[in-house]
Amino acid sequence: MGVPKDIAETAWFSLGSRPGEIGSAVIAGHFGWKNNRPAVFNYLSRLSPGDKLDVVDENGAVTTFVVRELRSYAPNADASDVFVSNDGKSHLNLVTCEGAWNVAEQTYPSRSIIFTDKLVE
């Protein structure tokens, strides 16, 4: 999975599902601030289970997801569960960094993953 080049962009794991399809779609985005601008996923930590979020595709179709769980992972932890789902449902998992910037290592200390489920009405 690629890393977005700009703080305002996201990267989609193209080997997985598209948002709204069966399986787990995964989108990554930056955390933090650059040039007095917040990164696209800077405020993900404000989400809570039950919160709703919308994804708009290239045709303008909106798919709504509901936050199920928030997890933190160490940078070298096995997070492969982010990419798979075998329950026959549609999920969207959002990945970003979290914590205080480590200047010496040029990274954040952990990764935050928001697990969501497609809203079925």
Descriptive account of the structure:
The protein has 121 residues and is mostly beta strands. The chain is built from no helices and eight strands. It has strands at residues 10-12, 23-29, 33-34, 37-38, 52-56, 62-73, 90-98, 110-118. The strands form two sheets. The chain has a six-stranded mixed β-sheet with strand order 1-2-7-8-6-5, with no helix packed on it. It is globular and about 45 Å long. The model has no long low-confidence stretch (mean pLDDT 87).
- Kindly report how far apart the N and C termini lie: 31 Å
Q: What shape does the CA trace take?
A: globular
Helix/strand order, N-terminal first: EEEEEEEE
- Low-pLDDT segments: none
Give the mean pLDDT. 87
Helix content: under 10%
Tally of DSSP β-strands: 8
Strand composition percent: 35-45%
Going across the major beta sheet, what is the strand order? Answer: 1-2-7-8-6-5
The DSSP helix count reads: 0
Structural class per helix/strand content?
Answer: mainly beta
Rg, nearest Å? 14 Å
- State the major sheet: 6 strands, mixed
Brief description of this entry?
This protein has 121 residues and is mainly beta.
Distinctive features:
about 120 residues, mainly beta, six-stranded mixed beta sheet, 8 strands
Topology readout:
Layout: E1 10-12, E2 23-29, E3 33-34, E4 37-38, E5 52-56, E6 62-73, E7 90-98, E8 110-118
Parallel strand pairs: 2-7
Antiparallel strand pairs: 1-2, 3-4, 5-6, 6-8, 7-8
